Amino acid sequence: MTEVDYYELLGCSRDADQGTIKTSYRKMAMKYHPDRTGGCQESEAKFKAVSEAYEVLKDPQKRAAYDRMGHAAFKQGMGGGAGGGADPGFGAFSDIFESVFGEFMGGRGGGGRRQARRGADLRYDMEISLADAFTGKSTEITVDVSGICEKCDGSGAKPGTAPKPCHTCGGAGAVRVQQGFFVVERACPTCHGAGQIIADPCPECRGEGRVDQTKTLTVNIPPGVDEGTRIRLSGEGEAGARGAPAGDLYIFLHIARHSLFTREGTTLHAHMPISFTTAALGGDIELPGIDGETISVKVPSGTQPGREIRQRGAGMPVLQGRGRGDLVVHLEVEMPRKLSSRQREILESFRETETGEECPQSTGFFAKLKQAMGA
């Protein structure tokens, strides 16, 4: 029997985090669940396969064993747990049930108070120079965000008072509703799932537990960041209502255009014009490196337009790693637009001494052209 890679079954990359794996599993399990596919045997087999994959990948120890040895880790008692086509356990089905009926449930314990909703994540776009991306930097940003109300310490209740248990749900945050043969739980319509009622709200935040404020934050940018690199500041997003955890702030980096260099990963590119005499005779040219050090580039004699010269280790640093990329110098031969009488005389003398071997491509082209015209 062919063993399909667990990551491939769930449609995840091997470096996917637990949240991504769980989300992918829920989508696949909902798609192939027997109750939704009318008992299709093929779908049922697929459902068991993705459930088996999730049972392994959601467990850090099992996942590590699978990453090292693949399916062999769970054969002949090597790893235990999932493998060998075992039916999914209760944990897999409860994950599906939670995803379908999550908005009605008050928690896995049944009847417990609902958790307050976490604050929203926020996004901040920052532009930095290519030089800053090379060296890294520490900078400060100012953001407008909802923060914890200091007057009530985030409770939403007027100082000196406290929230009271909701009389509708008894503090559970959820009420049970009969729907046909089923009894489901829904968020309490009175307290909206909080389980508490604020009879005397804080005048500063009007019972929300949070107020708009301006914060100054320090952002540490590591060397080697690229366009679109994301930096997460945990807990610096929007504050949750009535003491709930705050969301995160995500910094998205954008690299400003550089006057000399363009970037491709860790490789830098520079287009440099050189005179036709330097291209013909060769020579050394100098250009400033991204690190401020002067780079000497040796141009060989007979260099043709568009030639590339690679300078090892003169590019961008590897993000959170060691070493640097390369610098690729693209040489563009510039022809003179104006000639003095002396220069013209020298070039005329050079033309009189040409044998055709100096420029074999043009000589060969004209030879083929004469042959094609029957000359």
Automatic annotation (TrEMBL):
<dbReference type="InterPro" id="IPR001623">
    <property type="entry name" value="DnaJ_domain"/>
</dbReference>
<feature type="binding site">
    <location>
        <position position="188"/>
    </location>
    <ligand>
        <name>Zn(2+) 2</name>
    </ligand>
</feature>
<keyword id="KW-0862">Zinc</keyword>
<feature type="binding site">
    <location>
        <position position="152"/>
    </location>
    <ligand>
        <name>Zn(2+) 1</name>
    </ligand>
</feature>
<dbReference type="Pfam" id="PF01556">
    <property type="entry name" value="DnaJ_C"/>
</dbReference>
<feature type="binding site">
    <location>
        <position position="169"/>
    </location>
    <ligand>
        <name>Zn(2+) 2</name>
    </ligand>
</feature>
<keyword id="KW-0346">Stress response</keyword>
<feature type="binding site">
    <location>
        <position position="191"/>
    </location>
    <ligand>
        <name>Zn(2+) 2</name>
    </ligand>
</feature>
<dbReference type="GO" id="GO:0009408">
    <property type="term" value="P:response to heat"/>
</dbReference>
<dbReference type="GO" id="GO:0005737">
    <property type="term" value="C:cytoplasm"/>
</dbReference>
<feature type="repeat" description="CXXCXGXG motif">
    <location>
        <begin position="188"/>
        <end position="195"/>
    </location>
</feature>
<dbReference type="GO" id="GO:0006260">
    <property type="term" value="P:DNA replication"/>
</dbReference>
<dbReference type="GO" id="GO:0042026">
    <property type="term" value="P:protein refolding"/>
</dbReference>
<keyword id="KW-0677">Repeat</keyword>
<feature type="domain" description="CR-type">
    <location>
        <begin position="136"/>
        <end position="214"/>
    </location>
</feature>
<keyword id="KW-0235">DNA replication</keyword>
<dbReference type="Pfam" id="PF00226">
    <property type="entry name" value="DnaJ"/>
</dbReference>
<dbReference type="GO" id="GO:0008270">
    <property type="term" value="F:zinc ion binding"/>
</dbReference>
<dbReference type="InterPro" id="IPR008971">
    <property type="entry name" value="HSP40/DnaJ_pept-bd"/>
</dbReference>
<dbReference type="InterPro" id="IPR001305">
    <property type="entry name" value="HSP_DnaJ_Cys-rich_dom"/>
</dbReference>
<feature type="repeat" description="CXXCXGXG motif">
    <location>
        <begin position="166"/>
        <end position="173"/>
    </location>
</feature>
<comment type="function">
    <text>Participates actively in the response to hyperosmotic and heat shock by preventing the aggregation of stress-denatured proteins and by disaggregating proteins, also in an autonomous, DnaK-independent fashion. Unfolded proteins bind initially to DnaJ; upon interaction with the DnaJ-bound protein, DnaK hydrolyzes its bound ATP, resulting in the formation of a stable complex. GrpE releases ADP from DnaK; ATP binding to DnaK triggers the release of the substrate protein, thus completing the reaction cycle.</text>
</comment>
<dbReference type="GO" id="GO:0031072">
    <property type="term" value="F:heat shock protein binding"/>
</dbReference>
<keyword id="KW-0863">Zinc-finger</keyword>
<dbReference type="InterPro" id="IPR018253">
    <property type="entry name" value="DnaJ_domain_CS"/>
</dbReference>
<dbReference type="InterPro" id="IPR012724">
    <property type="entry name" value="DnaJ"/>
</dbReference>
<feature type="binding site">
    <location>
        <position position="166"/>
    </location>
    <ligand>
        <name>Zn(2+) 2</name>
    </ligand>
</feature>
<dbReference type="InterPro" id="IPR002939">
    <property type="entry name" value="DnaJ_C"/>
</dbReference>
<keyword id="KW-0963">Cytoplasm</keyword>
<feature type="binding site">
    <location>
        <position position="202"/>
    </location>
    <ligand>
        <name>Zn(2+) 1</name>
    </ligand>
</feature>
<dbReference type="Pfam" id="PF00684">
    <property type="entry name" value="DnaJ_CXXCXGXG"/>
</dbReference>
<protein>
    <recommendedName>
        <fullName>Chaperone protein DnaJ</fullName>
    </recommendedName>
</protein>
<feature type="domain" description="J">
    <location>
        <begin position="5"/>
        <end position="70"/>
    </location>
</feature>
<comment type="similarity">
    <text>Belongs to the DnaJ family.</text>
</comment>
<feature type="binding site">
    <location>
        <position position="149"/>
    </location>
    <ligand>
        <name>Zn(2+) 1</name>
    </ligand>
</feature>
<comment type="subunit">
    <text>Homodimer.</text>
</comment>
<feature type="binding site">
    <location>
        <position position="205"/>
    </location>
    <ligand>
        <name>Zn(2+) 1</name>
    </ligand>
</feature>
<dbReference type="GO" id="GO:0005524">
    <property type="term" value="F:ATP binding"/>
</dbReference>
<feature type="zinc finger region" description="CR-type">
    <location>
        <begin position="136"/>
        <end position="214"/>
    </location>
</feature>
<feature type="repeat" description="CXXCXGXG motif">
    <location>
        <begin position="149"/>
        <end position="156"/>
    </location>
</feature>
<dbReference type="InterPro" id="IPR036410">
    <property type="entry name" value="HSP_DnaJ_Cys-rich_dom_sf"/>
</dbReference>
<dbReference type="InterPro" id="IPR036869">
    <property type="entry name" value="J_dom_sf"/>
</dbReference>
